[in-house]
Amino acid sequence: MTVRTERHSYRETGKFTSLVLDYLDQRPEIGSLHHGLLSVDSIRQAIERRRSFTTDRSGLVDALTEQYRLVSVTATTQQQMESLSNPNTFTITTAHQCNLFLGPLYTLYKALHAIRLADTLNAQMPDHHFIPVFYLGSEDADLEELNHIHLLGEKLEWHTQQQGAVGRMTVDQGMIDLIDRQAQWLGSFPYGPNWMEKIRASYTIGSSLAAATFRLLHSLLADRGLLILEADHPNLKSAATEFFWNELQHAVSHQAVSAVNDRLKSWGYPVQAHARNINLFYLTEGKRTRIERVGPAWTLTDQRRQWDETQLRQELKEHPERFSPNVILRGLYQEIILPNLVYIGGGGELAYWLQLKPVFEAFQVPFPLLELRASLQWMDVRSAERLQALDLKPVDLFCSVDALLRRRMSDPTRAQLDLSDRLKNISAEYDLLSRQAVSADPTLGAHVDSLRTRALKKIEALAQKMDRAARRKMSDQQHQIETLQRDAFPGKVLQERWENAGYYYARYGENYLDWLYAAIEPFDRSFTWLIEES
Question: Is residue 175 part of a domain?
Fold first, then answer.
């Protein structure tokens, strides 16, 4: 079996926002909000910016070494961690929350994009070393977004009473029951047992969701060089305490983001994220609560804690792990603890990252290059054959069913079904024949008229049969197009935002990861179909 790729511009899809499309097209108005598109030259400029900022590489390596005690460390992983101590080593980072069983497909796409870009840069810039990093967003508390997957048309949902940061929640019997259900569905596929082995080894009773996600990603991608960072770590948070303190005292990010939001609105773009006066949460077991300033004091919104300046400063020093950045400061924290050059994110992520450059400038932290993650769409061999039979291309599936049917109805071949002109021509021939017959014998006129009536009725009957057949054919084509679109856009969204990788790995194994990796073309920035061929 082979897999070919077909690429289209993001504009052709109609699935991406104007801000993302204008970013890709380098609209001048938003040029001040980023450092330009990714290229070897822009990477070299990013390296120079990073050299002006001190990263605690030793603390980073120590934290990673501790975290990797969760798993069996491969030689590749060990080399990558050790390389971070070298000042010529830099990271290519993507991030996501601790979605159940990796969540939608794009989580895997993000990781593979980081790996592919790092490999490409290592080949093109051998004087430096680039490491792909997956930053686990384990402090997010939006359980409803993270607690389910869609698999084989069904929704598997984890129900739990646990609260607070999702990454700190633990695997319970309810999740084990979901794993057993998953095994029933995937176990019969060629690589289903391999996938389930990885899932069961990662999600063990009592393990945190962050640890489970860490293990699963490591089992899939460690040999490809990916490092996974669980940033909810006291030593890592310690590196950011002065920045957190600045935010608590002066509400730095609120001022910076508000100014950008006004500019984005004036350019006609919707605003993705809004800043609060203080963009930090207080994180304890089962709770993630906003911090507010009230006069000379700071308090939690639920009134559980209150500090004066001395007390808060001491709390931050002794327990940095209790302070959690929200969406406005998460990227800043990431860039403080990593020697990072590029952030790879989806369209929604890029939209809020484009709000953040003034925040980085206010805190004097280098702003990374931004790269839209690869959007990949899988089409199996059955769908590909159906599409070919309909004489359609993958990009046509982005059109509405009505538009595709109208296109087919207006096709020149459709006109062949309309016999009205032919009926007129035939009737005219009978007129001529009638005149000739009458000139020979006036009594033959009635006979010719009778022949004309019988002939026209038969042709009209044929036309009706042809029309009914065409309608049946069009109805069948409509059904086939609707089926193709349901497969391509389950839940009426891109496949990558809905389906889980479990099915694809269970069916294709490591080949699936190879095909995805090969389909990602750094610096290309195209929407890519992967089309299975027998």
Answer: yes
